[in-house]
Design a protein that fits this description.
The complex is a heterodimer of chains A (165) and B (166). Chain A is an alpha+beta fold and 165 residues long. Chain A folds into two domains: 48 residues; 111 residues, Immunoglobulin-like. In chain A, 33% of the residues lie in helices and 46% in strands. Chain A contains two helices and eight strands; from the N terminus they run αβββαβββββ. The longest helix of chain A has 47 residues. By secondary structure, chain B is of the alpha/beta class. Chain B has one domain: Glutaredoxin, CATH 3.40.30.10. Chain B is built from two helices and nine strands, in the order ββββαβββββα. In chain B, helix 1 packs parallel to helix 2. The longest helix of chain B has 18 residues. The chains are: A alpha+beta (165), B alpha/beta (166). Chains A and B meet through strand 3, helix 2 and strand 4 of A and strand 2 and strand 3 of B.
């Protein structure tokens, strides 16, 4: 009886060790799959939006006391490319310092005219429009542009400027 | 600079793109997301109304038709404390002017890619907290008011009365 019990314990210990090895193999396989997935995602991003043509646009609101955005439209070389409508919650988030990724575009290296129009209301509730047009030179590196709405205390108004990262 | 990404609420303009005209929405369907500007304040996004009951009123031919909508507005306001929101959707045409309401009057314009319109206007959509269409009442808003009021009352008292088919 004693030997049977010892044998059973031996096999139980062996089975546990085998289970652990299998679990480890499964974990390794899972990690490999996750890594592969990440590589594929990066490859896809590279193919869809390679650095040579990648242009990313973000919006920020500095204070936002004199201007609340309601809608934004961005055109490149006269072609409307990006647009967004704001809800109250989104404007609150911008006021708290959020950076909104407006969108990514593919731009060929060279010069491009970027026009941005932001419609909104001023601190008195009157409709206002901020607009800017700038010519940018796209190089082989990614172009990252921040559309910055800045309060102008002295004029009690706001202006829009483009900042290149 | 530290990027504070706002996730789905502020990003991905592209994924908001939907067909511009909805023709086949029926009770039980998930109502596609939209964002529309309002004639009287901030724009509204459907997804941000999740968690509340929403009475979405699609206006037909409306030129300053505030009078026609007053009862709907009062109905929505009286149930606001129970979690009901009320939005009107107005479509500009010619020299028509939007109604002057306290509730948001959304303006459908084709130029906004993240918005859509409902083909069978006028109509009242009752959308539950999960974003699913529970009731759809089409036809003249004046004629349909009594029925809408009854349905809304029943709907709000029962909570979600639509059971998703298996």
């Amino acid at each position: 009886m004693k030997y049977v019990l010892m044998l059973a314990l031996f096999f139980a210990g062996y089975a546990t060790a085998e289970d652990a090895a299998v679990r480890e193999q499964v974990m390794t396989a899972k990690e490999a799959v996750l890594e592969l997935n990440r590589d594929l995602y990066e490859l896809e991003r590279e193919l869809l939006s390679p650095a040579t043509t990648r242009a990313a646009f973000h919006i920020t609101l500095n204070h936002g006391e004199y201007f609340e955005p309601l809608a934004v439209e961005l055109s490149v070389d006269g072609q409307l490319e990006l647009q967004h409508l704001y809800t109250e919650r989104q404007v609150k988030a911008l006021r708290m310092g959020a950076v909104q990724p407006l969108g990514d575009l593919n731009l060929a290296p060279g010069k491009h005219d970027i026009s941005v129009t932001i419609r909104g209301v001023d601190h008195q509730g009157q409709g206002r429009e901020l607009a800017i047009t700038e010519t940018v030179s796209k190089t082989g590196k990614p172009l990252i542009v921040e559309l910055l709405i800045v309060d102008r205390e002295e004029l009690q108004s706001a202006r829009l400027q483009l900042k290149y990262w | 600079m530290v990027l504070t990404l706002l996730g789905c609420s502020l990003s991905a303009v592209a994924d908001e793109e939907v067909a511009n005209v909805q023709t086949s929405l029926k009770p039980g369907d998930l109502v596609p997301d939209f964002t529309m500007p309002a004639t009287n304040g901030f724009g509204q996004r459907l997804q941000e109304a999740r968690g509340s009951y929403l009475m979405l009123i699609w206006l037909g031919n409306c030129d300053e038709c505030s009078e026609r909508l007053v009862r709907y507005q009062l109905l929505a306001e009286s149930l606001e404390i129970e979690g009901l929101k009320g939005w009107f959707v107005w479509t500009p045409k010619g020299k028509r002017q939007p109604p002057n309401m306290r509730l948001p009057v959304l303006k459908y314009e084709e130029q906004w890619r993240q918005s859509w319109t409902f083909s069978d206007r006028p109509a009242v959509m009752l959308i539950n907290a999960d974003g699913r269409l529970d009731h759809l009442l089409t036809g003249d808003l004046r004629d349909n008011y009594q029925e809408t009021e009854q349905v809304v009352m029943r709907w709000m008292s029962k909570g979600r009365d639509y059971q998703r088919p298996e």
